[in-house]
Specification:
Two copies of one chain form a homodimer.
Chain A lengths: L4 H12 L4 E2 H7 L6 H14 L2 E5 L5 E5 L12 E4 L5 E3 L13 E12 L1 H4 L1
Parallel strand pairs in A: 4-6
Antiparallel strand pairs in A: 1-3, 2-3, 4-5
Chain B binds a DNA duplex through helix 2 and helix 3.
DNA sequence: CATCTTGTTGCAATTTAGTTGCATTTATAA
DNA sequence: TTATAAATGCAACTAAATTGCAACAAGATG
């Protein structure tokens, strides 16, 4: 991957905050810095490189978040949307893949909503 | 709710098969029987009546499935997409809401992929 | 340092899911 | 049978995401 200035801007964004960020949010934030197509493509590359992972949130919007360790396997942890502050974040707990009789489970997405610790304190 | 022929067609569809059906699928299947707007609106009514519930699948598509019992509260059970046969279904097990320290959990969506029992046997 | 190669970007056009307003139709209660 | 409110069809619209192609620029090579 070439270190273009657009790539650096996006990478920096994910290094600044831990939250999961929606593509729409990024496209708007950087609308004067880069084309929306570029945002989509860079995020796509980041995912393939194992830097980010993504999931579909409650609204059907795609969100990206940083991986803890570089890996190409999708991380298995819940994603949480706070109804109060609106931030979506990865919950750093290991969810054990549920075992269902007669099924083979390969991937698991867990999406939660409620109130986060910041908004409760 | 009036028993229109469009409503009966859709209701029949959900009575025929247990699987979760995407709106897109229904719009295509009944494109010569009713307008797509009608599909959206009838499904919306079914949900308000507690006949169906919905969730966003892996692709960001809205899917509807029958409720076991009539209720207006969202059911808490995992949804499963079989990679082989492509069907999405409700897994009839009770998922206990995960408890996360310092968080209040209100809703929980669990989306799984893998292979279903039909495809394994 | 200059130049070449190819990965990357911008732009415009397109696709697709989902929504809205309004005129018309139809289920059903009176 | 008729009135009326609910439901439908249609066309236009919004918004997310994708695609093709020409232009650009990172960084490797000489």
């Amino acid at each position: 991957m070439r270190k273009t200035k657009q790539l650096k801007l996006l990478l920096n964004e994910f290094n600044q905050k831990e939250d999961a960020i929606s593509i729409v949010e990024l496209v708007n934030k950087f609308s004067d810095k880069m084309n929306k197509t570029t945002v989509y493509r860079i995020l796509d590359r980041f995912e393939k490189e194992g830097i980010l992972h993504w999931f579909i949130d409650n609204d059907g919007l795609k969100r990206y978040a940083k991986n803890k360790k570089k890996s190409n396997t999708k991380e298995v942890h819940p994603h949480f949307l706070c109804e109060d502050c609106g931030t979506t974040s990865c919950i750093p707990i290991n969810i054990k893949l549920p075992s269902i009789p007669e099924y083979i489970i390969k991937t698991s997405e867990h999406f939660l909503t409620g109130q986060c610790k910041k908004c409760l304190s």
